[in-house]
Design goal:
Two copies of one chain form a homodimer. Helices cover 46% and strands 16% of the residues of chain A. The first copy, chain A, is of the alpha/beta class. The first copy, chain A, has three domains: 44 residues, no CATH class; 134 residues, Rossmann fold, CATH 3.40.50.2300; 138 residues, Rossmann fold (3-Layer(aba) Sandwich), CATH 3.40.50. In chain A, the strands form two sheets. Chain A has a six-stranded parallel beta sheet with strand order 2-1-3-4-5-11, with helices on both faces. In chain A, β1, α5 and β2 form a beta-alpha-beta unit. In chain A, α1 packs across α2, α2 crosses α3 and α5 runs parallel beside α14. Chain A is elongated. Chain A binds a DNA duplex through α2 and α4.
Chain lengths: 348, 348
DNA sequence: CTGAAAGCGCTAACAA
DNA sequence: TTGTTAGCGCTTTCAG
């Protein structure tokens, strides 16, 4: 590897001082036209590129914000990132992304690395690992150290920072109510274990919807899936469990999956078993992403507006970054939207 | 925003020198047990965190590698990133991701920002914007500046760096041959405009397969789609064009889509028109991702082994980073694999 | 065992 | 118009 050119080198070669070079390179009127030209030409020759790192050392800010997400394959996270990027770029900030892969250790590692100089603040969604071990010291440290954090999507208790979340509870209630209103009598729920906050809230919404409509809900129609559905054979096991559920309750005429994959898999299994969607069984998912759109039949779902979430998060962070007064921390709750597609006949 | 604690502050408060603090904090035997303990305790109190930025200024390396991808919603890119991460982490490197959103300007901006101090080298897949304007100055500059780049997936000519690509040509030929062998007579191709390198190569493979099997291929059965299929209504227009194609050629009994979305959309349209997959029409896609797996029927496809690609890329980059001798640049060509699912009956 | 000083690349206040 | 100098946070000789 060649080494990078520096101001010093240019200065030495040209027999001028470092500051002259610095000024010339940024077109300061202090420097004569001739010198400026000469320096610029030489710098180009050497492929000089200023070292921002040195700059941020001086400025004590980097104008970049760090985003840590649990998993990159989720369309939802991708959307959030787009939202963050758009807002951040508009406001002169760059965005750097790192992955925790749902692992606590990796989350800690990434935060440590980025927190120490590379960025001005974080936007993050905690990993499942962190949720499980309930260890939030890294977040507290970061905040104490004076680096603001905005949490999105997955929430954790007792942490003093801004948050932006989606109204999982009402979104889920809305979905189930729609199903009930369109005539479903027996709605299965496919959800996560309760330690995943959003799964828990969506489960609550399912239950509440039943209560509100005066319908009984059978716990045996709730399937709680443990985690990591996308890792290899986990998908098969999910399929088997759904199939078992459908066999156990042939009366099922509606399915609500708390995420795309759950809903989609359920739909697929049902189709394989001979059910016609949406005639025999109507299906709704949560998190509106590519899968829903491209499914056949396409999947009705509760859209989370990931981009908005990203925008909001970025806005909250940048605001905090650029003001000195310590405003109290806020929690923004975003509403969801029911996007109707082919897997339901809600108005039927 | 609170300001961050520094060695200097700790030193001042404790009435010792900066270097003592530095040494104590990293457990140097030079410092007495007592002092070390005292300093460590105080540092913790202040939530001290070393500033890596200052460190990399000294070391002139950051131990992190930058990845720039055109688009985050693609499962393939996500897989590549996982591959990169795994290998990089195993070798003591951190990974930072930035998005170009298929835009030339954003690609240039990101490269400039990261190249100037934040990272040691790049792994990147060029944006469509860059491919279109054919302006590669930013890459050349980066390389000249002494920062190694590994290009993956999308290729560009005349650039001196390591590359890792997938054998698009033979993968595509393989897919079409399989279709022909299983009895298809009229295979439609849904591909991109030719300026996208991989689209072009896959189109070539399609043609070659026909030639090799002594089958005629009709240019009218090739649908070249322009770009950005995932941006909102572009999907609808894609659907319309596929429908038109199928109506124009009722004889079509096989479809090869050069990416997941093309293949999937084709399958969906065909199903809507009453065709039974795979009985009436067999479908194969390229790039094996989540969509293929979750589709109904699930989609047979040419798997690209994104993780391997990531691993290879990371390996090439790190090797170059850690050796001084200038080895000639390599291009690794990865083979694809045909993953058979429900949308074909290749052995029928 | 502890400290002073130099230096990483850069900027900016100040001097010449 | 140009140069000198100090300093951003840190490590690392080298002295004390």
């Amino acid at each position: 590897m060649k080494k990078k050119a520096t101001l010093k080198e240019i200065a030495n070669e040209l027999g001028v001082s470092i500051s002259t070079v610095s000024k010339a390179l940024k077109g300061s009127p202090e420097i004569s036209f001739e010198t400026t030209e000469k320096i610029k030409a030489f710098a180009k020759l050497l492929h000089y590129r200023p070292n921002n790192i040195a700059l941020s050392l001086k400025n004590r800010q980097t104008k970049t914000i760090g985003v840590i997400i649990p998993e990159i394959v989720h369309h939802f996270f991708a959307e959030v990132i787009q939202g963050i990027e758009t807002y951040a770029n508009e406001h002169g900030y760059n965005v750097l992304i790192a992955l925790s892969n749902e692992s606590f250790d990796k989350e800690v590692f990434n935060i440590d690395t980025l927190a120490s100089g590379s960025i001005d603040g974080f936007i993050l969604s905690v990993s499942k690992g962190t949720l499980q071990c309930q260890d939030f010291h890294h977040l507290h440290e970061t905040i104490n150290q004076g680096m603001p954090i905005v949490l999105f999507d997955r929430q954790i208790p007792d942490i003093s920072c801004d948050k932006v979340i989606v109204d999982d509870y009402q979104g889920s209630r809305r979905a189930v109510e729609a199903l009930l209103e369109s005539g479903c009598k027996e709605i299965a729920l496919i959800t996560t274990e309760d330690y995943v906050d959003v799964g828990f809230k969506r489960t609550q919404g399912y239950i509440e919807a039943h209560i509100k409509k005066g319908m009984p809900h059978k716990p045996s129609m709730v399937l709680k899936v443990d985690d990591q559905f996308f890792w290899e054979d986990a998908l098969e096991s999910l399929e088997r469990r759904i199939e078992a559920l459908l066999r156990l309750h042939p009366c099922i005429d509606g399915i609500f999956g708390v995420n795309e994959v759950y809903a989609l898999t359920a739909m697929k299994v049902a189709q394989k078993m001979g059910y016609i969607i949406p005639k025999d069984i109507q299906v709704i998912g949560f998190t509106d992403g590519v899968l829903s759109k491209h499914a056949y039949p396409s999947l009705t779902s509760i859209k989370q507006h990931g981009k908005n979430m990203g925008r909001e998060a970025a806005q909250m962070l940048i605001q905090r970054l650029e003001s000195d007064d310590e405003r109290p921390f806020e929690t923004k709750v975003l509403q969801t939207e029911l996007v109707e597609r082919e897997s339901t006949q809600l108005l039927g």
